[in-house]
Amino acid sequence: MGSDADNSRSWGKFVATCLIGGVVVALGASALLASSSSSSSYHGPHLPLGIGFRRRKKKPVRVYMDGCFDMMHYGHCNALRQARALGDQLVVGVVSDAEITANKGPPVTPLHERMIMVKAVKWVDEVIPDAPYAITEDFMKKLFDEYNIDYIIHGDDPCVLPDGTDAYALAKKAGRYKQIKRTEGVSSTDIVGRMLLCVRERSISDSHNHSSLQRQFSHGHGQKLDDTGSGSGTRVSHFLPTSRRIVQFSNGKGCSAVLLAPSDLIGLGPGQDARIVYIDGAFDLFHAGHVEILRVAKELGDFLLVGIHTDQTVSAKRGAHRPIMNLHERSLSVLACRYVDEVIIGAPWEVSKDMITTFNISLVVHGTVAENNDFQKENGNPYHVPISMDIFKVLESPLDITTTTIIKRIVSNHEAYLKRNEKKAESEKRYYEGKSYVSGD
C-alpha cells in the first residue's frame, strides 16, 4: 500500500490526464484531493461518482400569465417583464374577444392584433390564443400537464369575476400562484378615458382647452380626474418616469435607449460593420401596425434604431390633442419590442447628415401607412438628406392601422366604452385607495 502523498500524486496525474483528454470532470480537483488524502482505505486512483457523466440539465421553470392585453401599453409589458423574471420561460395566455366582451365589455383591438402585440414583447417565449378569462380547474390542469407550467402569475390588484369570486382562487389553493406588482400610472381604462376626454373637449373648443389638455398629456400632471360629468373618473397621465424603469426595459435582448436632444447627439450602439436601419415616428398608442413595420424594418439590417419624436413635435405636426401618450410612455412601449435594438428618446424631426454619421446609419425607412405621408411634397421634407444620399426606402406596411384608427374605434362605440370605463374605474379607485407597497419590481 502506498503512502497518502503517493496516492495524492497519482490521483493528481489521473485528473491531469483526464483534463488533457477532454473528459468532463464533474467534481473539483481540490475537493477530490482532499477526500483522497483523508481516506485511509484508498487503494489507488478510482473514478468517483459523477466522473464521465454529464450533469443532468436543470428543468426550466415555466411561468404563465394571462390577460386581455387590449390596447397594449408599457404597463402590460412591465407585468410580462416581472413575470419572466420569476422563471426561465414565460407562456402568455391571450383572452378571447368573446370572453372579454362577456366579462368587461367590447375590446378595442381584436384577438389577432393582440396576439401580434404580445408575441412581439421581448420577454415572452410562448403565446396561447383564446385563453379563458377565469382559470377553471380543467384549464389549470391543461397548463400543468400539457404546457408544463410551474407557476401562475398575476398582479397585486384583485381580479374579480362577475360572480364576485377570485379569478385565481384555484391557482392559489394549489400553491402554484405568484404575485407581481402592478405598474403605476397607467391602465387600458385610463388610456380609453384620455381619448374620450379628448373627443369631448374637442367638441367644446378648438383653442384654449386643446392646449391646456395637451400640456396635461405631455407632462403627466398629478392624478387629475375627468370632471366633465361622465362619472368615469378618468385619469390624465400620472406616469412618473424613472431611470431605473428605462434601464429595466432596455435590458434583455440587447435593446438600449439614448436620451437625445437635437443639439446633443451621442453615438452609442452596434459594431462598426453592422448594417443599421433607422425608422422614426410618434409611436403613439403603440399598436400592431407599429409592431409589423418594425419587424419589416429589422429584416433589412443587423440593427434597428428607432427615433421617437418629442411631445412638442408630435403636437405641432398632428394637432394639439396629440400625443395621447407622453414621450416616456411611448418610449417604454417601443423599448419592449423584440425587433428594436436601440431607441432615441426625443429624436429630431429632420434626419440630418450629422445624425446619420453619428449613428452610422446605413438605411432610413418609412412605412406606406402613416398619419402623414405627404412629407415628400413639403418644403421641410424630414428625409431630404437620406434621400439625397440614396439611403432612403419606403416600406410596404403589412397592416393598415394608425393611431387615428384606434381612436376612431373608440369614438364609434363610445357609449359602450363609457359604460365599461365607469365599471372599471370603481375597481381601480378601490385598488389605489387600499394599495400597499410591494417589493420586487
The rounded Rg comes to 28 Å
Named at the architecture level, the CATH assignment of the domain at 262-403 is 3-Layer(aba) Sandwich
Structural class: alpha/beta
Put simply, the count of helices is: 17
Q: What's the total number of strands? A: 11
Segments where pLDDT lies below 50 for 5+ residues? Answer: 8-53, 204-235, 261-268
Average pLDDT over all residues: 77
Proportion of residues in extended strands: 5-15%
Q: What can be said about the biggest beta sheet?
A: 6 strands, parallel
Q: Report the oligomer.
A: single chain
Portion in helices: 25-40%
CATH superfamily descriptor of the domain at 262-403: HUPs
Distance between the termini: 61 Å
CATH fold field value of the domain at 262-403? Rossmann fold
Give the secondary structure arrangement, pairings included.
Blueprint: H1 4-20, H2 29-38, E1 62-67, H3 74-85, E2 89-95, H4 97-103, H5 111-119, E3 126-131, H6 137-145, E4 151-155, H7 169-173, E5 177-180, H8 188-204, H9 208-219, H10 243-250, E6 256-259, E7 276-281, H11 288-298, E8 303-309, H12 311-318, H13 327-335, E9 342-347, H14 353-358, E10 361-367, H15 384-388, E11 392-395, H16 403-412, H17 414-434
Parallel strand pairs: 1-2, 1-4, 2-3, 4-5, 6-9, 7-8, 7-10, 8-9, 10-11
Question: What does this molecule look like?
Answer:
With 441 residues, the chain is α/β, with parallel strands linked by helices. Among the domains are: 62-180, HUPs (Rossmann fold), CATH 3.40.50.620; 262-403, Rossmann fold (3-Layer(aba) Sandwich), CATH 3.40.50. The protein contains 17 helices and eleven strands. The chain has helices at 4-20, 29-38, 74-85, 97-103, 111-119, 137-145, 169-173, 188-204, 208-219, 243-250, 288-298, 311-318, 327-335, 353-358, 384-388, 403-412, 414-434, and strands at residues 62-67, 89-95, 126-131, 151-155, 177-180, 256-259, 276-281, 303-309, 342-347, 361-367, 392-395. The strands form two sheets. The protein has a six-stranded parallel β-sheet with strand order 6-9-8-7-10-11. Helix 11 (288-298) links the parallel strand 7 and strand 8. Helix 1 runs antiparallel to helix 2 (29-38) and helix 8 packs across helix 17 (414-434). The chain is globular. Mean pLDDT is 77; it is low at 8-53, 204-235 and 261-268. This is Ethanolamine-phosphate cytidylyltransferase. InterPro entries: CCT, Cyt_trans-like, Ect1/PCYT2, Rossmann-like_a/b/a_fold. Pathway: Lipid metabolism; Phospholipid metabolism; phosphatidylethanolamine biosynthesis; phosphatidylethanolamine from ethanolamine: step 2/3.
